[in-house]
């Protein structure tokens, strides 16, 4: 039997992490089994330990990947806008119907935040790193970036975006969900540079 080469093993590993990143956002940490993730990745359960030392190690990578994807999406949105519109465009994309409906691809903090205190330290560490990056992406869009006040405003903006999307996903009233998204955007629009 031929052994897989390093590139093939790395590609398989990436497939597993991508499947896990989607699965945790869709079903939560406890609702995601190794068997389900391996099946979604098109692999058998038996191959799991060739890629990860434990379920927690896989969850940490999945949380990191999901967080990196969310930060990258916001950073791309900001980079593709004129500087004076970057923050508002980033917030508009985050607080959009598309993001509201994209649970598997959306912000993992919204999908998993309430589960985080019960996760292994490596999962929490990965999430904390990505939350700090998101705060930094927001702070960089503020005219006083680099000053303590900009960091503080970024903390409030990120907290508001996450909380708004969480509430909009939680309610079963589409009009209320729309109002939550729109009112938060309206509230912060004047603070955009």
Task: Describe, in plain words, how this protein is organized in 3D.
The protein has one domain (54-191): Tetracycline Repressor, domain 2 (Orthogonal Bundle), CATH 1.10.357.10. Helices cover 67% and strands 0% of the residues. The chain has nine helices and no strands. It has helices spanning 6-27, 34-40, 55-79, 86-94, 97-101, 108-112, 121-139, 148-170, 174-188. Helix 3 (55-79) packs parallel to helix 7 (121-139). It is globular and about 55 Å long. The model has no long low-confidence stretch (mean pLDDT 92).
Write the layout of secondary structure elements.
Blueprint (H helix, E strand, L loop, with lengths): L5 H22 L6 H7 L14 H25 L6 H9 L2 H5 L6 H5 L8 H19 L8 H23 L3 H15 L5
Helix pairs in contact: 1-2, 1-3, 3-4, 3-7, 7-8, 8-9
Q: Residue share in helices?
A: 55-70%
Instruction: Tell me the CATH superfamily.
Output: Tetracycline Repressor, domain 2
Distance between the termini: 61 Å
Based on Cα principal axes, name the global outline: globular
Low-confidence stretches: none
Provide the CATH architecture.
Answer: Orthogonal Bundle
CATH topology: Tetracycline Repressor, domain 2
CATH C-level class is Mainly Alpha
Number of helices: 9
Succession of helices and strands: HHHHHHHHH
Largest sheet: number of strands, sense, barrel closure: none
């Amino acid at each position: 039997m031929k052994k897989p080469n390093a590139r093939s093993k790395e590609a398989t590993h990436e497939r597993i992490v991508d499947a896990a990143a989607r699965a945790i956002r869709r079903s939560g940490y406890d609702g995601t089994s190794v068997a389900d993730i391996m099946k979604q990745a098109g692999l058998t359960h038996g191959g799991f330990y060739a890629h990860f030392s434990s379920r927690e190690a896989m969850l940490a990578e999945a949380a990191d990947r999901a967080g990196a994807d969310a930060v990258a999406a916001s950073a791309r949105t900001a980079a593709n806008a004129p500087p004076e519109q970057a923050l508002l465009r980033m917030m508009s994309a985050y607080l959009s119907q598309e993001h509201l409906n994209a649970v598997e691809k959306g912000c993992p903090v919204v999908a998993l935040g309430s589960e985080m205190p019960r996760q292994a330290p490596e999962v929490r560490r990965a999430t904390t790193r990505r939350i700090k990056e998101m705060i930094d992406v927001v702070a960089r869009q503020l005219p006083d970036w680099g000053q303590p006040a900009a960091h503080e405003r970024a903390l409030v903006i990120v907290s508001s975006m996450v909380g708004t999307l969480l509430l909009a996903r939680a309610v079963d009233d589409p009009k209320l969900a729309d109002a939550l998204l729109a009112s938060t955007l309206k509230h912060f629009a004047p603070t955009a540079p």
